[in-house]
Model the fold of this input.
Amino acid sequence: MKIVIGIDVGISTTKIVGINEEGDVVSPIRIRATDPVTSLYGAFGKYLHDNHIQLHDVEKVMLTGVGSAYINEPVYGLPTDKAEEFLADGLGARYETHLDRMLVVSLGTGTSIVKCDGDDIKHIGGIGIGGGTLQGLSRLLLKTDDIKQVAALAEEGDLSHINVLIKDICTNPLQGLPMDAIASLFGNAKMNASREDIALGLIWMVLQSICSATILSSLGSGIKEFVMIGNLTLLPQVRHVFPATERLYGVKFRIPRYSEFCTAIGAALSYRNVQSTTF
Done:
């Protein structure tokens, strides 16, 4: 069996997948460590061990992500290339959704947006709002940066205690804006707001800002299919934020099966791509 390994190396988290000869994704995993090199080698070793893969079974190792800049030698002596991250985002999302025309939105520490139009895959922008924003504000306001804890708190929150809705400022609906649309994020927050309300408000603020940036990025393109990838897609609150935005703007937000591993999948798929750089 020959397998291509795709590795998305973050600063503290590494995601790794294999693509076998049949083109199937094999057992994606995620490993956290204190630095990218430790994270990479820890993830790689665990992946090989858990899947009973020998080094001679690995045809190619493809690296991507910001942490890959710290790796400038072949991994375990194997043929090792680097894949451009935005290309990997597009290839992974296309593999997962079978869409040829879409915007791929990577919800990481910040948010990047990649336009895919057939084989034309290019980065078109992004915003500095993402998981890092949620962690930082949660650290300040909730005294925790554990995203799972913040999401659990948010499940008990009441959004009307935080946001101003259209119905709060208008007696009649505005054209294109239902009464339950958000007029102001955190505009209704009170000094005595509960931790649960704050947690829910923070998550909605981050996710809705990303949705709005995505829609604005799509204007003039005719694209209404948005593929959302990255760790924040695992938040339970996306089940409420994304559909609300879909109804408002007539678009579709898709979350692939392996949404958090799409970039690693795309790195593996970019093997032999002319945009790779061989060590």
Notes: The chain has two domains: 3-82, 99-260.
